[in-house]
Amino acid sequence: MPLLVSGQWSIKAQAATGCSGEVEPVRWNETVHRHAMVPNEVWFFDDEMFAPGDLGDGDEKEPPAEQTDSSSEGQGPEESWMYNPTWPLPALEPLTSGHYMSMEIGNDSVGALRFNLSSDYRTTFCVTLQSIEDGVSTPVEGDVYLLTTSQYRLYEEIYDISHNSYSFWDDFGVDELNALSDIPPEWRSFSPAGWQTYRDVHQYEQTSEVTFSVSMDGPELYSSLFGGSEWQDFYLVVDTWDNTHDGDAPAPETNVVADVTVMPTERTLILPPWTVPLVFFGAMAALIATPFILNSRYMNAGMGDSNDEATTTVPLMEQRAMDVHAEDE
Asked: How far apart are CA 255 and CA 131, in angstroms?
């Protein structure tokens, strides 16, 4: 696996993001696996789709410049094995040591790194995005997402649809597509353009630098409605296309270099998942019982022990008058 960026940029990236610690050389296809998505080499003429080689030698049609993407011209930095991986994908070892890596991502494309995260470790990701021209680095804005395997597959389908089936989006309408991107996260997966990030929170859009951490209660599994569970890897995605989210960054119109540092830290205290509802139940029970306890203490306030105190009676006016009359006699 080639390392796409020289070491001088890695020092800047680590210093800028605040990630520090010992890192080990990346063992590609063992602890980290590289993925990519690029626009396909597809041309459209009068609502007809052609792939390279479909046009005969005598055909006078030429692909319009605005419909020819950078990958068809050989300008994309990605290599074919990144977006055409060999199946089945290699199983990765749990990530237990720090790594630094860089990847170059073409315009209107996606770069992704696949990891096998362990619930015994707290994993911190530090990502810096920049463009490199004439040896000078310039910060550039993009989108960074953390997805599980099932989420990445849906995201991949949306990318393929938006780049290959142009007639679908034209018929669907821009207004309808924008409306679907505004729906709440819990309903987003039911829309044609819906996709979610891990825990609905690990999406960092219109940014050139981000640092975040992930801790899991246990192994990440996906359970389908038809039974069975599937192991979930994690994909750190760097997005340089105008996706279906309203708040995402537009395509930067340049290649993007992503400097990524991943630092796992072993967790010393791991509480089981059932402790969360137990603590919540205890807090609710205490909240409900507090008014009853305060009322009981208020009602009992000022009442002493009858065994230690002499009982006295309050004299009545009639009784006092009879005592005075008896003394006069």
From this structure: 6
235: which residues sit within 8 A by CB, 6+ positions away?
Answer: 35, 112, 113, 114, 115, 145, 146, 147, 148, 149, 151, 152
- Report d(CA 275, CA 122) in Å as an integer: 19
**110 is in which domain, residue-wise?**
7-38+76-266
Question: Looking at this protein, which amino acid is placed at residue 200?
Answer: D
Under 8 Å between Cβ of 26 and 2: no
CA dist 83 and 81 (Å) reads 6
Residue 327 lies in a domain: no
Please tell me the total count of domains within the chain: 1
98 and 266 Cβ atoms separated by less than 8 Å: no
Establish if 179 belongs to a structural domain. Answer: yes
Residue 33 placed within a domain: yes
Contact 166, 58 (CB under 8 A): no
Q: What percent of the chain has pLDDT over 70?
A: 61
From CA 88, how far away is CA 111, in angstroms rounded?
19
Q: How far apart are CA 256 and CA 137, in angstroms?
A: 10
Helix, strand, or coil (residue 249): coil
DSSP 238: E
How far from each other are the two terminal CA atoms of the chain, in whole angstroms? 124
Predicted TM-score of the model (pTM): 0.68
Q: What is the pLDDT of residues 149-167, one digit of tens each?
A: 999 999 998 898 888 755 4
Cite the beta strand spans of the chain per DSSP E: 33-37, 43-45, 48-50, 99-105, 110-115, 121-133, 136-139, 142-148, 203-207, 209-214, 221-223, 229-231, 234-239, 256-266
308 belongs to a structural domain: no
